[in-house]
Amino acid sequence: VAAAVSADGSRIAVADASGKVRISDVASGAALAQFQSVADPVDLAWNEPDGTLAVLSYNTALQLWSVS
Known about the structure:
This protein is an all-beta fold. It has strands at 2-5, 11-15, 20-25, 31-36, 41-47, 52-57, 62-66.
């Protein structure tokens, strides 16, 4: 499991072992987005200026997702 909070603290992204990523609003807990990414994610990182979420897997595959 990997997780990352946006720079402004308003959103959290959580990826499970299968690579399913869920982005939620921190204040309300409401789901904002959900998608299938790489299996065995080990890290997530937000790039706030362009609204990208990076997902890195155990086997070093990297995916960039536009989530703005």
